[in-house]
Amino acid sequence: MGGARRVGWVAAGLVLGAGACYCIYRLARGQRPGSQRLRLRSSRSAEDLTNGSYDDILTAEQLQKLLYLLESTEDPIILERALVTLGNNAAFSTNQVIIRELGGIPIVGRKINDPNYSIKEKALNALSNLSVNVENQIKIKVQVLKLLLNLSENPAMTEGLLGAQVDSSFLSLYDGHVAKEILLRALTLFQNINNCFKKEGHLAKPAFTKGSLFFHLYGEECAQKMQALVNHPDADVKEKVTIIPKF
């Protein structure tokens, strides 16, 4: 059970990192069916915002209180409730902008490093809703890639990462026009996974399914992108590409 949940949020992170999270990642838990009409509520205390009905559109002031609560509490129950409330409110375009302008994306992004997997899941769900806004996507790529880089250094996570189902747009991270910060992180992710893959002694290709990260990273399309990046104008990118072993 724990392993399945771990792969679940890793897969979600990969999809988010690719910027392809328009309703692709859906949590089975914490979802509310239907499209109920939401209503505005008057100002309440920060913890009150996490109790009772989650079907309320919060004001900017209330969202600010909620973000402060996420930063100030270590109570896992309150954190989960706050992330659920924030995630539900992040489904609305106006709130996607407000949360970004309040500095909420890094606050939520830091919660995907929490050791509690339920908190990770709810943070990823909130980021998924926030990422529907185009201006939010770059900030969220960056946040998720930081997590994935940490995971990719651990050989024990290699099989789970490579087996995660990823949308084909993940490979857009390796386009030459991608911002240098993101491109270098994406290349380092590939390098780390490659190193761990070799270190684990996986000389024969395991039976990863079509659509998995393995399928994309070691496919022809990715090989072509790597070859194109050899001629990238930035020296750091060129150097990073050349040290990734060829399979």
Automatic annotation (TrEMBL):
<dbReference type="InterPro" id="IPR051303">
    <property type="entry name" value="Armcx_regulator"/>
</dbReference>
<keyword id="KW-0472">Membrane</keyword>
<feature type="domain" description="Armadillo repeat-containing">
    <location>
        <begin position="58"/>
        <end position="142"/>
    </location>
</feature>
<feature type="transmembrane region" description="Helical">
    <location>
        <begin position="6"/>
        <end position="28"/>
    </location>
</feature>
<keyword id="KW-0812">Transmembrane</keyword>
<dbReference type="InterPro" id="IPR011989">
    <property type="entry name" value="ARM-like"/>
</dbReference>
<dbReference type="InterPro" id="IPR006911">
    <property type="entry name" value="ARM-rpt_dom"/>
</dbReference>
<keyword id="KW-0496">Mitochondrion</keyword>
<dbReference type="GO" id="GO:0005741">
    <property type="term" value="C:mitochondrial outer membrane"/>
</dbReference>
<keyword id="KW-1000">Mitochondrion outer membrane</keyword>
<protein>
    <submittedName>
        <fullName>Armadillo repeat containing 10</fullName>
    </submittedName>
</protein>
<dbReference type="Pfam" id="PF04826">
    <property type="entry name" value="Arm_2"/>
</dbReference>
<dbReference type="InterPro" id="IPR016024">
    <property type="entry name" value="ARM-type_fold"/>
</dbReference>
<keyword id="KW-1133">Transmembrane helix</keyword>
